[in-house]
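job 3f2a | input accepted
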Amino acid sequence: MKTKTEILIELWVESRTRFSNQLKNLSESDLTKKLLPSQNSVGFLIRHIGDVELLFSKNVFGDKSVRVIAKTVIDQKDTGQWTNLEELKEYVNHSFETLHNIVQQQTDEDWETVITTAEFGTKTKAEAFGRIVSHTAYHAGQMAIINKYGK
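job 3f2a | predicted structure (151 res):
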């Protein structure tokens, strides 16, 4: 029988394929695409997903080794700087591995631990994890639409 952690990781990894599968087919020219009137480009959204995964590793799951400057969260808008595809891919691979590693360390009891963050208030770790799953899928949907219809 699988642990809660194993089940939740499977759910997250499967959901994240909505994002990771897109990365395989992107070109550097896709990174600057936007769908007006939205300010966010494909490159910004990729960086944003990585920023938030690292923030979750640190602030929700308590990985004290994580050092993150979440530029997309700080700036709150696309500044046009996310144009290097290889760097962005490396960043989100790092953010995935970082979050995956700390999530793997959770016990079944840990998922019921209550945490409080400025971003979404008080939740159990399981509820908070639902936020990162839906956050990535939400922005992956935006990326797909921007890449298909944006300029």
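job 3f2a | The two ends are 48 Å apart (CA to CA).
job 3f2a | closed
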